[in-house]
């Protein structure tokens, strides 16, 4: 498989869907999630330093987190709604939102990961009846003092969330809007 087949562009530059083949058999399946060499061939220098595993109960929204580091997120179980927001001030797609549903509850659904460049905000929302497990690699160690985010219900972004009364962290309840963070972009 070459990088053209495994890496798919989105309408936000640098936000890439990673979909390598899955090989099922009577024991289960094998799936290679990521090859750094393929990202490198697209001009991306990704050097992960931390690997994390998160679990969300149905109805939880995490984010929109906008830290200045790269991420590869890989949903493992359950059904997940994700929203990505370009917060890079110099980007021609500043403020653009891309949403995606990952559904690992459906047999033979494609196993996908997503590469998120620094400055693109990401969020996840667990939907369905079961918890969602996902793993992610990041290019910097977690530092709470660098944690940033945008209001999940920002009216300028108008994300059509699949839950109406989400479960949120205290931080995510009080994140500023994109307009509050970047007022010069809205003049």
Question: Could you explain the architecture of this structure?
Answer:
It contains four helices and twelve strands. The strands form three sheets. A six-stranded antiparallel beta sheet has the order 1-2-10-7-12-5. A hairpin with a 2-residue loop joins strand 3 and strand 4. The longest helix is centred in the N-terminal third of the chain and has 6 residues. The mean pLDDT is 93.
Sheet with most strands: 6 strands, antiparallel
Q: What structural class is derived from the secondary structure elements?
A: mainly beta
Outline the low-pLDDT stretches: none
Count up the helices.
4
Mean pLDDT: 93
| Overall radius of gyration | 16 Å
Instruction: Tell me the count of domains.
Output: 1
Feature tags:
mainly beta, Jelly Rolls, 6-stranded antiparallel sheet
Element layout with pairings:
Layout: H1 3-6, E1 7-9, E2 16-18, E3 22-25, E4 28-31, H2 36-41, E5 50-56, E6 61-65, E7 71-75, E8 79-86, E9 97-103, E10 113-116, E11 120-127, E12 132-138, H3 170-173, H4 178-181
Antiparallel strand pairs: 1-2, 2-10, 3-4, 5-12, 6-11, 7-10, 7-12, 8-9, 8-11
Summarize the structure.
The protein contains 4 helices and 12 strands; from the N terminus they run αββββαββββββββαα. It is mainly beta.
């Amino acid at each position: 498989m070459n990088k053209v087949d495994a890496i798919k562009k989105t309408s936000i530059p640098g936000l890439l869907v990673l979909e390598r083949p899955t090989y099922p058999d009577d024991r289960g399946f094998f799936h290679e999630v990521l090859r750094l060499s393929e990202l490198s061939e697209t001009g991306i220098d990704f050097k992960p330093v931390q690997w994390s595993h998160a679990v969300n109960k149905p109805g939880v929204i995490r984010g929109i987190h906008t830290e200045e580091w790269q991420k590869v997120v890989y949903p493992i179980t359950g059904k997940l709604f994700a929203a990505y927001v370009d917060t890079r001030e110099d980007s021609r797609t500043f403020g653009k939102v891309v949403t995606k549903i990952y559904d690992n509850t459906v047999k033979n659904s494609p196993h996908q990961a997503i590469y998120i460049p620094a400055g693109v905000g990401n969020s996840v929302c667990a939907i369905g009846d079961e918890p969602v497990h996902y793993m992610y690699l990041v290019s910097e160690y977690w530092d709470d003092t660098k944690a940033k985010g945008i209001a999940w219900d920002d009216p300028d972004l108008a994300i059509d969330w699949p839950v109406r009364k989400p479960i949120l962290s205290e931080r995510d309840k009080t994140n500023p809007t994109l307009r509050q963070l970047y007022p010069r972009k809205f003049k």
